Amino acid sequence: MDEESGDRWVVDIALQPPSIDDNTSDSGRLEKALAPELKTDSIAMDLKLLKLLPERLRKWDYACRCIVFRDHGKWRLIDVLDPEGGDCAAGMAVDLGTTRVVLRLVDLATGRTLSEFAFDNPQDEAGPDILARLHYAEKREGRQHLQELITGGINRAVGDVCAKAGISSEQVYLMAVAGNTAMTHLFMGLPPQWLIREPYIPAVNSPGAVRADELGINISFCARVFVFPNAGSYFGGDLISGAYYAGFHENDEVAVLVDVGTNAEVLLGNRQWLVACAGAAGPALEGGVSEIGMTAGPGVIDSVRIDPESREVSVHTIDDMPARGICGSGMIDLAAQLFLAGMVDIRGRFVPEVCGDRLKEIDGMHHFIVVFGRDSAEGNDLTISQADLDSLIRSKAAMYTILETITGYVGISFEDISAFYVGGTFGSFINPRSAISIGMLPDLPEEVFHPLGNSSVKGAARLLSSRQAAEDIESIRGRITYLELNVNQDFMNRFSAARFLPHTDAARFPTVAGAVK
User: Fold this and answer.
1) pTM above 0.85?
2) What pLDDT digit, counting tens, does each position of 276-311 carry?
3) Dihedral sign (CA 284, 452, 206, 48)
4) What is the pLDDT of residue 393?
5) Which of 142, 141, 8, 135 is CA-nearest to residue 65?
6) How far is the C-alpha of 119 from the C-alpha of 96, rounded, in Å?
7) Which among 81, 121, 181, 352 has most CB atoms closer than 10 A?
């Protein structure tokens, strides 16, 4: 997905020096030379840059390396550099997550990744969930505090990631930030209260490129921060960044993008049309409901296998550390393996005579021992309860129903989908066969499914490598039709049918039926 070098934000220019016969201003001379390269009639420049331009051009014999950017159809000259200096001109891609913030440093001239860094979002000081933060930000001082927390965290991380790459933060000229609508508002210090009040209106849908110093971001003196657009309160810039990375602006064939976080967000379509929706399917699928559920990390179970004959359970943990919990992909694997081994029935209920000594009762509820205490990190049995499994089944039913509803809305079947992209950490670890086995994803050939990893930061990094990017991203946002599920009766009817393993209609999952013990 790399762009051609001629499509970068870095342009080398050689100018004709001024003379008695050509007394064009320095900025006008530079603009005139750049215009044909950028195919534009107008290039804006900040006053801060204009103050430095005359001395720099004369020092470099009227040659320079230009850092440019375009959004909303308008070009801007960010800075001019010594063409012989050899200094790196960098951009910073940021995935602005509610829980975790990921940064990727990119060489603007080559598109090459220089370094990466991640940190926990410091806004959890005001609340771990987005709703608590939005309420906290309703007052001006709360909003300012949350903005200072996130910009302070980003500034520290920028310093760290730049030091790791051997450059200064002043060499970062562009930043691309992709986050959900609420996180974008809190990052920019925008009033967020109308996001959570009917009719749920954002302050802005397409913020575009904002001066870094206006946001409190400490990078180059004229740097711009491109904030990815959203398509309303529930479909944010992180999803649009993922759609851009997956190529929804250029693909003719119909594809689906699924990203599971607090909610499950789905985008369906191609370069001609797009339909999006979101639903509350996320927490259990992220491993966030079970007592032993946690996000992916060292010692967290990410896959499970159960021998169909002996019913012996084997688990794999990230970094092969002793087990301390289980993430969403591990939960899906576990549910699939339990079902295929006959240890739970089609309702998702444990079958005591098959589970044997792995099933115990705690406070009147069945718990299945995934890892015995002797093998766990803390020395305690790692168990999931019947309530945990019920929650997972509701979440998988919601996920499948979202997909069924959105395809039905546009009048296509699952078989019409050429590519099924799964984003986020969830997508990095998920086993499509397990997800199909429990009826979370449609029964399609496994080669149709493509894990994207962190498609949000990857889309932001791709923007830093392409002059066409901002226009392509806005074209994606402009084509999205949002389907509201909260008032969709068809969704509720389909949801009830999907609350079984894999579904009440077994014919929808032909490859699963023959695999059940």
Assistant:
1) yes
2) 988 766 555 655 567 788 877 899 999 999 998 999
3) positive
4) 92
5) 8
6) 10
7) 181
* Tokens 């993922």, residue located: 242
Is it true that domain 90-227 has CATH number 3.30.420.480?
Answer: yes
Q: Give the span between the Cα atoms of 237 and 477, in whole angstroms.
A: 9
Give the span between the Cα atoms of 147 and 408, in whole angstroms: 41
How many beta carbons lie within 10 A of that of residue 16, not counting itself? 11
- C-alpha 322/C-alpha 42 separation (Å) is 60
Domain 252-282+392-513 has what CATH class?
Answer: alpha beta
Banded model confidence at residue 3, pLDDT cuts 50, 70, 90? very low
Please give the DSSP secondary-structure letter assigned to residue 76.
E
pLDDT tier for residue 233 given thresholds of 50, 70 and 90: confident
| 109-133 confidence digits (pLDDT tens) | 999 999 999 999 999 999 888 889 9
Token representation of residue 90:
């960098």
Residue 293: the pLDDT is 84
Angstrom distances, CA of residue 34 to CA of 52, 59, 135, 226, 444: 18, 19, 47, 22, 50
Q: Please, how many CA atoms are within 13 Å of residue 13, restricted to the half-sphere of its CB?
A: 28
Instruction: Read off the tokens for 106.
Output: 């990119």
Classified by CATH at the fold level, domain 5-81 comes out as: Ubiquitin-like (UB roll) (3.10.20)
Q: What is the pLDDT of residue 277?
A: 87
- Please determine whether the domains at 5-81 and 252-282+392-513 fall in the same fold group of CATH: no
Tokens for 53, please give them.
Answer: 């331009």
Asked if 145 and 46 touch (Cβ cutoff 8 Å), the reply is no
Q: What is the pLDDT of residue 501?
A: 95
Residue count (the chain): 517
Cα Dmax for the chain: 98
- The CA distance from 188 to 169, in Å, is 20
